[in-house]
Amino acid sequence: xxxxxxxxxxxxxxxxxxxxxxxxxxxxxxxxxxxxxxxxxxxxxxxxxxxxxxxxxxxxxxxxxxxxxxxxxxxxxxxxxxxxxxxxxxxxxxxxxxxxxxxxxxxxxxxxxxxxxxxxxxxxxxxxxxxxxxxxxxxxxxxxxxxxxxxxxxxxxxxxxxxxxxxxxxxxxxxxxxxxxxxxxxxxxxxxxxxxxxxxxxxxxxxxxxxxxxxxxxxxxxxxxxxxxxxxxxxxxxxxxxxxxxxxxxxxxxxxxxxxxxxxxxxxxxxxxxxxxxxxxxxxxxxxxxxxxxxxxxxxxxxxxxx
Amino acid sequence: xxxxxxxxxxxxxxxxxxxxxxxxxxxxxxxxxxxxxxxxxxxxxxxxxxxxxxxxxxxxxxxxxxxxxxxxxxxxxxxxxxxxxxxxxxxxxxxxxxxxxxxxxxxxxxxxxxxxxxxxxxxxxxxxxxxxxxxxxxxxxxxxxxxxxxxxxxxxxxxxxxxxxxxxxxxxxxxxxxxxxxxxxxxxxxxxxxxxxxxxxxxxxxxxxxxxxxxxxxxxxxxxxxxxxxxxxxxxxxxxxxxxxxxxxxxxxxxxxxxxxxxxxxxxxxxxxxxxxxxxxxxxxxxxxxxxxxxxxxxxxxxxxxx
Lengths: 307, 307
Hints:
The complex is a heterodimer.
Chain A: H1 2-50, H2 72-78, H3 81-111, H4 117-132, H5 135-146, H6 151-158, H7 173-198, H8 202-210, H9 215-243, H10 247-252, H11 264-273, H12 277-306
Helix pairs in contact in A: 2-12, 3-7, 3-9, 3-11, 4-7, 7-9, 8-9, 9-12, 11-12
Chain B: H1 2-10, H2 12-25, H3 33-66, H4 70-73, H5 88-95, H6 99-130, H7 136-148, H8 155-164, H9 171-175, H10 182-192, H11 197-205, H12 210-218, H13 223-239, H14 242-247, H15 256-265, H16 272-292, H17 294-306
Helix pairs in contact in B: 3-16, 5-16, 6-10, 6-13, 7-10, 10-13, 11-12, 13-17, 15-16
């Protein structure tokens, strides 16, 4: 009897303690929760709501005094040639840029995974340097190199080749941006891949050498399969960032020539600039859903790795 | 294949003995470390060096261009080394283009954002890692969802919200939305989970409250992830572009990338001597930081990439 009472008071004490802990923990999280609700959750929901209204720049002081227009924004979006063109540009950027970036990053990672540690650290830092530089600054430099009478064409002229006006030619503008993005982003993937390579047990590779496997065979049959989770993860991380590319065309081509470098993000920004917030939100939601789908893939990959 | 292997296995036993004998007699005969290194990695490093030269060339070209006079930079074909090296492009940024203001804006925004993330992300990280409370899974779910939301999906409604909070074109608008980043919360939580509970229990037995335990026991242990978080946050804030472009509406609030991008697409669009000097000014602080704190940058990539 007495013991029972003791137990129940223990339980009571526990719940009081837990309640106290809950208050403390949410107290610790309060700044994050405020920032999250105010600048993430509310915008995300309003973005969805706005895409069903005719909100424009004139409604900015009275955002609740707008008309519900149903799927009208999405309809006009999907019948807008420029929107489809921007989706195509974005898709091309990802589908060409991603494999290129990954291939270069993997080659560098493999080369830097053996040899002298100090020397490798130096090279690693060097290849990573463009990642830390502001895209805007980088874009200015590349525009200077690629302009019609710039360095690249002057060098080509030496060997008697007449280079195109790289950034003003519809055929070369997007490829130029892809090459630049590759140059800038290889560093991140390279470091992720090096970490992945170092996790491959050396015993496996030694065993393969004993069996007479050459370097290429080892790479193809052992390294690549073992590196697959890292490669997939890198692919997802990079494609999420490539799907949003904006800074490069903003400075280098302003979306031109003839919209050939107008990315999805640029389209959203442009509609925003025109004051068509409804259409802009609708387009941003389409892009968001694509990005969320790719990110969801990342979570699945991460979970598989934990198992 | 098998035959050659057999022979290569069969022969060495006698040769090895021979080699060892000569080694003992004339030790200098052994190939030097450098020789052996060159034999094993020479080709790799030659290719890497060539690649590295291409990789850093844009930075070189940027610096060279920034030292040329306005007239020299228009020259076709371009000169390689500046003929009359001049710092006038840099001084023009200070005297004509208000570099000081942009720099201070960028610095204030980056420093405050970094400090905020250090404090607030650690607090949430602590709650998630070390306190058992109601709603913990919900909170962690929020963090993970936030990780997936790209800024392009929220900037339009965010603009409406910030306008109605009368914060447009203030430091607040540039700092608040980034004050706690989900990645930082994740980083801190992961690290804090590794801190032994016994340490905290000891504090609790001594009668320390959660705040004291957090500040006096947990935080001092967390220097490595905090350094990484600081570097990551500073970098992304310094280079942030889309939101500052939208939220900063006048010269006095522009950050460096915004100012540079607007000059490079505005009146100064063809004046590359001044644009390249601007690019140097934007890139230098972050490159210096990278050179001195390399370790933390690299850690940031591996930690945020692999998780």
